[in-house]
Amino acid sequence: MFTNEDEAFTAAEETYRGYIAAFNAVDLSKPETFEPVFAFTTASYSANERKQLSEMHAEGYIRGGDIAIVLFDPLTATDETVTARACTDASRTTFTDADGVSLVPPDRPDRVLVELTFTLNADAVLLDTAEVVTDESCASSE
């Protein structure tokens, strides 16, 4: 699909940026806004996202603000997968219940390091897994 690693890394980063942009556009009161998120993910990842978003919608949760990508660091690429780490800044995001009570834990870090796996196929590069890296921080990344 790609002639070199750099092309695969670029495609993976574009996928992740598209995914974050689609997630930032989600309005939990409008399930139709969920669909663009799934265009960037594998079926298994989409199933989990769909479940979580549907539960938040059913509970009447309200999301505000945007997640920002501070850093995208490609790690490896094969013919089938790309792995990377991303530092995301969620300091401007809010989640509240239907009564306006914050659901954000007071100790939530502003920035989180996430290890990502993307699946490559003939048609697309799709986000397959995203795991928080708990033993490292991107708090001081600029």
Could you describe the 3D structure shown?
The chain has a 4-stranded antiparallel β-sheet with strand order 2-3-5-6. It contains 3 helices and 6 strands. The protein has 142 residues and is α+β, with helices and mostly antiparallel strands.
Mean pLDDT, rounded to whole units?
92
Q: How are the strands ordered across the major sheet?
A: 2-3-5-6
What sort of overall outline do the alpha carbons produce when their principal axes are compared?
globular
Tell me the helix content.
25-40%
Low-pLDDT segments, ≥5 res: none
What does the largest sheet look like?
Answer: 4 strands, antiparallel
H/E topology pattern: HHHEEEEEE
* Terminal residue distance: 32 Å
Classify the beta-strand content into a percent band: 25-35%
What is the overall number of helices?
Answer: 3
Rg, nearest Å: 16 Å
Structural class, please?
A: alpha+beta
List keywords for this structure.
142 residues, alpha+beta, four-stranded antiparallel beta sheet, two-stranded antiparallel ribbon, 6 strands
SSE topology:
Layout: H1 5-24, H2 35-38, H3 43-59, E1 62-64, E2 68-77, E3 81-89, E4 94-96, E5 111-120, E6 125-132
Antiparallel strand pairs: 1-4, 2-3, 3-5, 5-6
